[in-house]
Amino acid sequence: MSETVTLEIPDELARRAREVASATRRRFEDVVLDGLRRAVEEPDVEALPDDSLLALCDATMSPANQDALGTLLVLHREGTLSGDEAAHLDVLMAE
Q1: CA distances from 93 to 1, 46, 53, 66, 87 (A)
Q2: Running DSSP on this structure, what letter comes out for residue 77?
Q3: Number of neighbours of residue 48 by Cβ within 10 angstroms
Q4: Cβ count near 31 (within 10 Å)
Q5: Rounded CA gap, 27 and 40, in Å?
Q6: Sequence-distant (≥ 6) Cβ neighbours of residue 73 within 8 angstroms
């Protein structure tokens, strides 16, 4: 069962979601839905201190992905994450 919802999304958020959709070859709607699903179902990892987040990642990620995640999280925090980097961050966070 599903429900149709009409949302007004800020331009910047829509742009970033479209970039992720393009980079991952997915539908825009699926990217938005996945983001909403993660926000509702998963714990708020952004509220975790960096050392706790990295410890959580250590248990499941390769060292290369851990390094990439750390770098991307810094860029995200600084507000300088590009569309491709945002897509890569989404992929790493989904692992």
Answers
A1: 27, 11, 11, 10, 10
A2: H
A3: 13
A4: 21
A5: 20
A6: 50, 53, 89
pTM over 0.70: no
- 3-class secondary structure per residue, the chain: CCCCCCCCCCHHHHHHHHHHHHHHCCCHHHHHHHHHHHHHHCCCHHHCCHHHHHHHHHCCCCHHHHHHHHHHHHHHHHCCCCHHHHHHHHHHHHC
Q: Name residue 32's amino acid.
A: V
**Per-residue pLDDT tens digits for 9-46:** 999 999 999 998 998 889 999 999 998 888 777 667 67
